[in-house]
Amino acid sequence: MKKNKLEEIPNHNSVPILAWDFHYEYLNELKVAFADLKKIKEISVQFGWNEEKLNISDRIKEEVVLVTDPDLKIIFASSGIKRMTGYTEIEVLGKTPKMFQGSATSKTDLKEIKKAIELRIPFEKTIKNYKKDGKTYRCKISASPVFNLKGKLSHFIAFEKEDLNV
């Protein structure tokens, strides 16, 4: 009697179908992160800033990256913006980060952020922001001005993540 091919292979390994779902999800996340990094690279080349110094490639995996022009209009939001706020990149482009603020956002914190922006210095702050559905969340922001190779203010970049330590 002839054996089945699988019977001939001792201890053959099989992978449950569910594992492929996780693998596919992981590949999609990598694809999206790569697309985000490509966009950031294009912006940095166009405006002459050193994105390696900003450590974007490591941070974009865990944090939302927002880039604004000097007038604070959002020109780029990484794909993680949807998970954190409910807004898509298209919905936030051209708007200012004020769109995430509301009555529960600390006025004192906002004044401190405004002062750092005016002085063109980096800042870190955790503030209460609002999602698209109106729910609040604590947003940890680490932001910096970005200067071009000639030393002129080019943009502001913020790395943000939801602070779950309430």
Provide the fold topology.
Elements: H1 5-8, H2 17-47, H3 56-59, E1 64-68, E2 74-77, H4 80-85, H5 89-92, H6 107-119, E3 123-130, E4 136-147, E5 153-162
Antiparallel strand pairs: 1-2, 1-5, 3-4, 4-5
Q: What is the strand tally? A: 5
Overall shape: it is globular
- Overall helicity: 25-40%
First and last CA, distance: 67 Å
Q: In which order are the strands of the major sheet placed? A: 2-1-5-4-3
| Largest beta-sheet characterization | 5 strands, antiparallel
Spans of 5+ residues with little confidence (pLDDT < 50)? Answer: none
Question: Helical region count?
Answer: 6
Strand content: 15-25%
Order of helices and strands: HHHEEHHHEEE
Oligomer: single chain
**Gyration radius, in Å:** 21 Å
What class, by secondary structure content? alpha+beta
Mean pLDDT: 86
